[in-house]
Specification:
By secondary structure, the chain is mainly α. The chain has a domain of 102 residues. Helix 1 packs across helix 2. The longest helix is centred in the N-terminal third of the chain and has 95 residues.
Length: 153
């Protein structure tokens, strides 16, 4: 083997070694980039988790206060129902004791008063709003008084 061949083999060996080192360097950089990306994603996930935990805590507190309010309302409702039963019992006792009151309670209400208690089956907010707007509608008077001013005056 000649010196030239040995030199070429040495250069080829050095070039192959340099190529391997370059490839290894690229792999290390890619791994570092992936590690950095994973670290950033983990931090983002931790931040989102903390935000979700804070939201859960707020919602739990709101739910607890709603439950307390609901329990108070149920207690108040029970008290009101008890008062209603007591009032109804008192009315029944008074009816039994007083003949005039019993006769008065058994009479029918006038038609105008009965119409105040009647209403159609309402399904939804829109139907209720329509019923309210039609209920007390003002109708124009057919013959206006002579001393009234017209709206343009």
């Amino acid at each position: 083997m000649t010196t030239l061949r040995q030199s070429l083999y040495g250069l080829a060996l050095l070039a192959a070694l340099a190529g391997l080192l370059y490839i290894q360097h690229q792999r290390v950089e890619i791994a570092q980039g992936a590690t950095q990306l994973a670290t950033e994603r983990a931090q983002t996930a931790e931040q989102q988790s903390a935000a979700h935990l804070q939201t859960i805590t707020k919602l739990t507190a709101a739910l607890d206060s709603e439950r307390i309010a609901q329990q108070q309302l149920q207690t108040q409702t029970a008290g009101i129902r008890q008062q209603l039963r007591t009032s109804q019992q008192q009315i029944e006792e008074l009816k039994r004791e007083n003949e005039d009151l019993r006769e008065w309670a058994d009479t029918q209400l006038p038609a105008a008063a009965r119409s105040l208690r009647t209403r159609p089956a309402i399904t939804g907010a829109a139907a209720y709003r329509d019923w309210l707007s039609r209920r007390n509608a003002m109708h124009p008077v057919p013959n206006a008084a002579a001393d009234q001013r017209s709206p343009a005056d």
